[in-house]
Design brief:
12 helices, seven-stranded mixed beta sheet, S-adenosyl-L-methionine, Rossmann fold, EC 2.1.1.80, three-stranded antiparallel beta sheet, disordered N terminus
C-alpha cells in the first residue's frame, strides 16, 4: 500500500474509507482490463462513494483490502464491482420506438420467412440489467407468435455481468409502479398481481419466462454462443467503453448477425466512425450490411 493510501485510510473512522492514489490507479487499470470501462480522474469521488457500500458489505475497513481481493481472485468480485460503478437505469419498453419496429416490421417479416415447422428465432439482450428489456421483448415476441399461428423455436437470451441485476431478472418480480411503460392491456395479460405480503408487486407471466434464458456474461470475455441471432439489443452499455473497445465489440456482434440483421443501441450511442460493417436504418438501429 502506498503512502498516500496509508494516510488516507487512517481517516476511515472519521469520514469512512478514502480512496488513495495508488488504489484508484489500480482500480482504473483493473476495470479497464476486465470490463472495458475507462475511468477518468473526474470519476474518482463517484467510484469512492459507490465502493464504500461494497466495502461495508464485505466487512472491509479500507480500499487496500478490496484491491487485494481483486488481485487474489478477480472473477469472484468482478460482477459486483462492475455493478457498483455503473449506472443501472432501465425500464419496461424503454425507447419504445425500438419495440414498435420489432413488432410492426421485423417480427412479422421474420416469422413469414420461417415457414417450416421448427425454424428457430433468436434475440440477444446483451446487458439485460434487472430484466425489464428482455421481458419487454418477450411480450412483443409472444404476441407475434400468437398471430403467426405456427410452431417456432423462439428464444431470447438475456445476459449481464452484475450478479444483483441477474438475480432480479431471474426473480421477475417488480413494484407495480415500475410497470409505467407497460400498457394496461399488457399488464393484465403478462403480469400476475401479488397479494398479501406481495401486495404492490407484479410477477411476469410464466409464458414470458419460458421465452427468456438469463445467464451471466462478460462482454469482454469469450462468448459461448455458436449460432447467429436474428437481432441483438445492446442498449446503454457501450456508452461506458472507450473507442477501441467499442470497435472490437461491434466486430464481434457482426460475426453473430447474418447480413441484414439489426443491432439496437441506446439513445445516446452511435457507431459513427467505429464500424464499416453496419449501416444506420433508424433511430439508433443499425443493420449489418449485405455486401
Amino acid at each position: 500500500m502506498n503512502a498516500v493510501a496509508s494516510h488516507d485510510n487512517t481517516m476511515a473512522g472519521v469520514a469512512g474509507p478514502v480512496l488513495g492514489d495508488g488504489e484508484f490507479r489500480f482500480l482504473r487499470e483493473f476495470v479497464y482490463e476486465h470490463c472495458g470501462i475507462a475511468l477518468s480522474e473526474q470519476k474518482r469521488q463517484l467510484v469512492q462513494g459507490r465502493l464504500v457500500r461494497r466495502l461495508r458489505a464485505l466487512g472491509m475497513k479500507g480500499f487496500d483490502a478490496y484491491c487485494e481481493l481483486l488481485r487474489a481472485d478477480p472473477e469472484s468480485e468482478l460482477g459486483e464491482l462492475a455493478s457498483a460503478i455503473s449506472t443501472n437505469v432501465t425500464s419496461f419498453f424503454r425507447e419504445v420506438h425500438h419495440f414498435e419496429v420489432l413488432a410492426d416490421d421485423l417480427l412479422p417479416r421474420w416469422l413469414d420467412q420461417k415457414r417450416r415447422e421448427g425454424d428457430r428465432l433468436r434475440i440477444w439482450s446483451a446487458g439485460c440489467s434487472s430484466g425489464e428489456e428482455p421481458y419487454s421483448l418477450a411480450m412483443v415476441l409472444a404476441e407475434a407468435l400468437e398471430r403467426c399461428g405456427r410452431s417456432i423455436d423462439a428464444k431470447i437470451l438475456a445476459t449481464d455481468l452484475s450478479p444483483a441485476a441477474l438475480a432480479a431478472a431471474q426473480k421477475g418480480v417488480y413494484p407495480v409502479e415500475r410497470l409505467e411503460g407497460v400498457s394496461a392491456e399488457r399488464r393484465r395479460r403478462w403480469f400476475l398481481r401479488g397479494e398479501g405480503e406481495y401486495a404492490g408487486l407484479a410477477c411476469v407471466h410464466p409464458k414470458l419466462r419460458e421465452l427468456v434464458t438469463i445467464l451471466p456474461l462478460n462482454l469482454l470475455h469469450e462468448w459461448p454462443m455458436q449460432g447467429t441471432f436474428d437481432a441483438i439489443f445492446c442498449r446503454n452499455v457501450v456508452i461506458y467503453f472507450d473507442q477501441p473497445t467499442k470497435q472490437k465489440l461491434f466486430r464481434r456482434f457482426a460475426r453473430l448477425l447474418p447480413p441484414g440483421a439489426p443491432l439496437f443501441l441506446g439513445h445516446s450511442e452511435s457507431m459513427h466512425g467505429l464500424s464499416d460493417e453496419f449501416e444506420l436504418i433508424g433511430r439508433t438501429i443499425y443493420r449489418k450490411k449485405t455486401a
